Amino acid sequence: MSLRLTGATAGRVLRQLRNDPRTIGILLVLPCVLIGLIAWMFEGTPVLNSFGPLLVGLFPLVVMFIVTSVATLRERQSGTLERLMTTPTGKADILLGYMVAFGVVAIVQALVLIGFSLWVAGMEVAGELWLVVVVAVLDAILGTALGLAASAIARTEFQAVQLMPVVIFPQLIASGLIMPRAEMPGVLEAVSRVLPLTYGMEALQKLAKGGGFEEVRGAVGVVVLFIVGALVLGAATLRRRTP
Amino acid sequence: MGNSGTAIEIRGLRVVRGGKHGVTVIDGMDLDVPSGQVVGLLGPSGSGKTTLMRAIVGVQEVEAGSVEVLGRPAGDPSLRHRVGYVTQSPSVYSDLSVVENLRYFAALLGASEDDVVRSLRDVDLTPLAGRRVGVLSGGERSRVSLAVALLASPDLLVLDEPTVGLDPVLRRDLWNLFRSLSTGGTSLLVSSHVMDEATRCDRLLLLRDGRVLADSTLPDLLERTRTTDVEQAFLALVDSDSDAKDLR
Question: Which residue in chain B is spatially nearest to A79 when comparing CA positions?
Answer without folding.
Answer: B91
